[in-house]
Amino acid sequence: MITRRTFLVAGATVTGALGGAGLLLPPSGQEAAAADLDPAGIRKFTLRMPVPPVLRPYAVSGTTRYYAMPIKEVNKTVVPGRTTAVRTFNGSFPGPVIKARSGERVVVRQTNQLSVPTSVHLHGAHVPEDSDGGPMDLIAPNGGRKTYTYPNTQPHANLWFHDHAHHAESENVFRGLTGTYLLTDDTEERLGLPSGAYDVPVSLRDARFDDSGALVYEMGDFLHRNVILANGKAWPYFEVAARKYRFRVYNTANMRYFDLSLSDGSEFQLIGTDGGLLPAPYRTTSVALSPGERADIVVDFSRYPVGTELVLANRPDAVPGGPADLVSQVLQFRVTRTAADSSVVPGVLRTLPELPPATVDRSVELFMDETSGPHGLAYIDGKVYDHDRIDTEIAYGTTEIWTVTNANQIAPHNFHMHLVQFRVLERNGQPVTSGPEYGLKDTVSLMPGETVRLQATFTGYRGTYVYHCHIFDHAAMGMMANMRIV
Fold first, then answer.
1. Which residues on adjacent β-strands are paired with residue 305?
2. Does residue 60 lie within any of the structural domains?
3. Per-residue confidence band for 318, with pLDDT thresholds at 50, 70 and 90
4. Average pLDDT of span 161-181
5. Rounded to a whole number, what is the distance in angstroms from the first to the last CA of the chain?
6. Candidate ranges 132-146, 304-318, 361-375; pick with highest mean pLDDT
7. In total, how many domains does the chain have?
8. What's the subunit arrangement here (predicted)?
């Protein structure tokens, strides 16, 4: 997560980086010929925000649940009055929710009915290499199949799954290939947090459409993706009761950063992030998410009378390159009724595991070409991604500290590691001892010139996994590397 300060530092310059780095590539073929849909002409708060459906297992055996998911294209109403073809898991946009439990296995059979290859990565999960969904571990198009096994040996976490096929992941995710994976355990369940219909996953992203309603994809096209989607609908509304709600907010955008607040400036409680609950609730008026990060928040609507309309806002100076009147709003809450509420937010949520002594220190540098036009590349430690090259070799069971630096002067990045959840020890030399980055994380933001120190323990599985910038377009440009745990 990132703070208001880091957004303000980068806000005025991100737009130039996106153009100067060669990310605004010229459109091609049919997309170039179609006129864009004017986002200003889309009526806000006319579509109801759906709650993603919970996927049901087709079989249960002991402590293992079995699921089947076709990966296919379907038509959905995303903007009012138009139909959009989207790529989906199981036909829903965004994809369905898998509810899992620590210590109980989940097995998912994916069938790729698309005409392009896919690879399904369970983001934030502790899984064996053959189920990690690596960028070159592809499911063939037109009927290819792969079965993924998720042991769920980690504690509760707010996970999600998305395509990770190298050079295709950016477009596949832009066109819809994301879904939610809620992993729970006894620690989380015994707290009495809002649950059931009052525990709502919300996937946020941006999009660009032509006048027919078709998605328009161009790699790096941040400046034109000015339609904000919440659970697959453009600027929807969501009816709530005057009581507490838990919202699991996911930034599933390719490139866009969100800095979210309630339009009346009131407080809410941040209770968790990527890797589950924080040690204690964190009272705040805003939460910032780079692509891939998650925020678990509780909003108490009992302070509002029935009939109140309230907007989940996105701070305009946090989203350079988009018209502020468009991208500064996300969705509308409508308080339509009263309801009993026995849920609580305890003062203590969990105890984080002790940090074991680290025996290895590493440095990682993220950098991308900012002046190379359409042929710009992106690097980790001066190298573009090579599937056959091992960049980092790690002894199984060791605890390491990684110092990760964004060496760019203009372009923002973030950093995601497969296999492990990590702890953020320092940001720009300042210890992290509380707040949004104090919990378990798997993705962390780095504005230009920023440095973070991370600590992770590499255990559970041996094999080759990737680490990369989770701005998908940067990863596709080469900002990804292999680590091998031996």
1. none
2. no
3. low
4. 96
5. 31
6. 132-146
7. 1
8. Monomer.
Instruction: Output the pLDDT for position 220.
Output: 84
Which pLDDT belongs to residue 371? 80
Of 190, 346, 331, the closest CA to residue 247 belongs to 331
For residue 147, pLDDT over 50 is answered with: yes
Q: Is residue 198 part of a domain?
A: yes
Q: What is the DSSP letter of 176?
A: T
Residue for token digits 């104090």?
438
Q: Are 130 and 136 in contact (CB under 8 A)?
A: no
Contacts 24+ apart (CB under 8 A), 58-67: 63/103, 63/104, 63/105, 64/104, 64/105, 64/106, 64/107, 65/100, 65/104, 65/105, 65/106, 65/107, 66/107, 66/108, 66/109, 67/98, 67/106, 67/107, 67/108, 67/109
* Tokens at 248, concatenated: 């699991």
Q: Do residues 101 and 152 touch, judged by C-beta distance below 8 A?
A: yes
Indicate whether 302 belongs to any domain: yes
CA 424 to chain centre: 18
Instruction: Indicate the residue type of 298.
Output: V
- Give backbone dihedrals phi and psi of 406, rounded to 5 degrees, phi first: -90, 105
Task: Look at strands 244-251 and 199-207 and give their pairing.
Answer: parallel
Whole-model pTM above 0.85?
yes
**Cβ-based burial of 331 (10 A; exposed 0-12, middle 13-18, buried ≥19):** buried
Bridge partner list, 378: 368
Residue 416 CA from chain centroid, whole number: 10
Sign of CA dihedral 281, 285, 290, 295: positive
CA-CA-CA-CA dihedral for 358, 363, 366, 369, to nearest 10: -170
**What amino acid is encoded at 215 in this protein?**
L
pLDDT of res. 294:
98
Q: Tell me if 303 sits within 8 A of 240, measured CB to CB.
A: no
Whether the Cβ atoms of residue 465 and residue 483 lie closer than 8 Å to each other: yes
Band (pLDDT 50/70/90 cuts) for residue 33 is low
How far, in Å, are 49, 64, 254, 468 from residue 2 at the CA level?
26, 37, 17, 18
Where residue 332 sits, what CATH number does that domain have? 2.60.40.420
Strands in 77-198 per DSSP E: 84-89, 97-101, 105-112, 120-123, 144-150, 157-163, 178-184
What is the C-alpha separation between 391 and 396, in angstroms, rounded?
Answer: 16
Find out whether 135 and 119 touch, Cβ atoms under 8 Å. yes
Q: Are 175 and 1 in contact (CB under 8 A)?
A: no
Examine residue 332 and state whether it is found in any structural domain, yes or no.
yes
**Hey, what are 337's tokens?**
């009724």
> Average pLDDT over the chain, rounded to whole?
92
- Structural domain containing residue 206: 4-26+192-338
What type of residue is 462?
A: R
